[in-house]
């Protein structure tokens, strides 16, 4: 079963693709978070034959639902209304983990290259989708 992972931000939506057979998530780009973003995700899910869309839920560090989590919940509702199967996962610190992974192995110090925001968004979507895939595998659903 193929899946699409999303890291929904205010400006961009990081996208990852993966499947239960391989258990591996890979970056699949970025979608601009515009009023058309729901339809863009629907098209991407269909193009990749994804049977489920996994959306990272940005809870606060205390676990509370803040303004960004409310916005993501609304986005999830719109995806479901568009006919997509959606699952959510806690995404706290996924962007920080993604940025660390992208900069691992690069030289530290002067001239250090920081990955672009789009790359971090897509990598955060990989972190989100990979956590979901790992959870499915560990629960015996894979």
Describe the structure concisely.
The chain is of the alpha/beta class. The protein is built from four helices and five strands; from the N terminus they run E-E-E-H-E-H-E-H-H.
Describe, in plain words, how this protein is organized in 3D:
This protein has 142 residues and is α/β, with parallel strands linked by helices. It has a single domain, classed as YqgF/RNase H-like domain (Nucleotidyltransferase, domain 5), CATH 3.30.420. The chain is 41% helix and 25% strand. It contains 4 helices and 5 strands. It has helices spanning 37-47, 67-81, 94-103, 117-138; strands spanning 2-8, 12-19, 25-32, 50-57, 86-90. A 5-stranded mixed sheet has the order 3-2-1-4-5, with helices on both faces. The radius of gyration is 15 Å and the shape is globular. The mean pLDDT is 85.
Give the topology.
Layout: E1 2-8, E2 12-19, E3 25-32, H1 37-47, E4 50-57, H2 67-81, E5 86-90, H3 94-103, H4 117-138
Please list the strands of the largest sheet in the order they lie side by side. Answer: 3-2-1-4-5
Kindly estimate the percentage of residues that lie in beta strands according to DSSP: 25-35%
Element string (H = helix, E = strand): EEEHEHEHH
Helix share of residues?
A: 40-55%
Radius of gyration (Å): 15 Å
So, CATH architecture?
2-Layer Sandwich
